[in-house]
């Protein structure tokens, strides 16, 4: 019996990328390939890239070099957002055999077979992103106790700083029936928690009902998806990943507040607390709407965790603008921040805007908001000390401990004797760790 060919994967970027890498791995497995760790020798290395990071090119080159050192004769395939945006740039990296764009990603086996028949470095298969109009469902599955289920892809928004529409194309979605079926498949694999993901998740429904000659219509809304998922008794927990504030309706918030399966945890991108910046960013809301969404969440779920994304150093952001953002976030009842330093992206309107903020000033503003985030997280954790909350237990590097997250996304550490990995149990929140990243727990009995 012939030894199966081996394939290894490496993922950069968001949870959506991780779900798609898992789907690619299942494609290879179903064709007889043996997945191995990226640190091992493999016949094929697949790198799924991201375009958000400033060092996309540097990271890509570094990882390709690592693969070639392990196995000089291996095929190296690069796909993902960066591959769609800069295919020739990647093809010119020494060692890269094949570059696949957004429309070609899930036909990877066809291209790999072609590559083995006619080997040649730097082959590019990346069509125009405007031609990408199909949805391919995917979900992550591995050692973790949760799975990231992709239900939406692409984006019709035109934020002035963002290249994602150029990399992933127009908004399109899975059907309601297919998304439910995938959730059931995930549950059958023993996963207890599913995180719904997408590029613009709240726009779920776009691209699912196509009538020839007409723009695709929505057959269901995100609120419909949430309601249907909530009926799945096989799944213990659901979370909603990042959702735009203008798409996070009071209806959705109220439903999550009453749900036994959807966790009281929201991640809602803000980007700026200054209306001038929001206008220049071409965001679809003003800061007052964001404050209303936070207030609505806390009204229905006072214990809810709320995270938000913020960009600092956007063109035209003065010191007064930044202080307005800082003070606005300080006034909000949010729990943590993801802070991004603005970096210029080719072919975006923001890259041509005046008022460039010096790089050192961008870094300083980043550090200031990171400090605010630490204070917000510490205060949120402290407010819940002494409470008993449900936790999904996960692996910890120390065998004497278990890790995990409460329903409202407090990261905990607990003695391994009080529960089992991938089981949900009640814990009493006792004390903050010195870095305020976790809370130690004990059995509530």
If you had to describe this structure to a student in words, what would you say it looks like?
By secondary structure, the chain is of the alpha/beta class. The chain folds into 3 domains: 6-127, Rossmann fold; 138-382, tm_1862 like domain (pyruvate-formate lyase- activating enzyme, Alpha-Beta Horseshoe); 388-442, OB fold (Dihydrolipoamide Acetyltransferase, E2P), CATH 2.40.50.140. It is built from 13 helices and 20 strands. It has helices at 15-30, 56-70, 81-85, 87-91, 108-117, 164-168, 176-188, 222-230, 250-258, 275-281, 287-300, 319-331, 359-383, and strands at 6-11, 34-36, 44-49, 75-80, 98-100, 123-125, 138-139, 146-150, 152-153, 172-173, 193-197, 237-240, 265-267, 305-312, 336-341, 388-394, 401-406, 411-415, 424-432, 439-442. The strands form 5 sheets. It has a 6-stranded parallel beta sheet, with helices on both faces. The chain has a 5-stranded mixed β-barrel with strand order 16-17-18-20-19. Helix 8 packs parallel to helix 9. The chain is globular.
